[in-house]
Fold Hemerythrin-like domain-containing protein.
Amino acid sequence: MAVSPACWADEPFALISIPGCGMDLSKAHASVHVAREMAFAHNGMIRALNSIYQQCIHVSTLIDIADLLKYAQFWCQWLREHHHGEEELLFPQIEKITGEKGLMERNVAQHHAFESGLVKFETWLNDSKPENYHGKELRALIDSFGKILIQHLTEEIQTLLALGQYDGQALKEAWTVFDLEMRKGDKSIIFPIVLGSSDREFEGAGDWPEVPGVVRILVHYYFERKHRGAWRFSPSTTWGNKRPLTFTGDSEI
């Protein structure tokens, strides 16, 4: 897959347009709120994957390679926890609210569609040794499931937007339960990777995710310390500001 020579983490996989732009969100149905929150989360996953894809052929030292492998493993963990939470918490609640059993079945089927490619990617990451690393192999593995994954992440937003005829308060409550569960992961991993793949300027994202400013300070100065080397591959700062990708250039391995 081609990558523009001077692009940020918005390529090669396309980001998702945020629902509700230009709307009075205070009057919007909860389905718009839920779809917006999910789109912000999905875009973070896409940016992080793009960051891995772009930088993986430009790392050269053993420590840089080891940190990239760790960052990619954390990305896989984030994606898996997110989809597990959807299947165990959010989707069953949506089907209960709508009274339509099987409504979210297509989304679950899409999870399974890229599963084999994701497993191969995870296995490769876990088995790789920095001294035997090949960035082009990593890229090829991402190419094997990337398009299917991005299709799923994009189409799920439309599924959520289509819930506008149902109980808005119940949808908000279902999202809150899901969101709180997603924040319970290892704070030295989930907070840095989520905050570090956000973009506060993208289509009115602002300070997403909504956390007190003191939390961002705590993440930056405390929770990021354990895996600091891995966060060099994050496309944004802890405050959601774009920053140049660390590893670019002509060296390819």
The two ends are 16 Å apart (CA to CA). The CA atoms of residues 114 and 148 lie 6 Å apart.
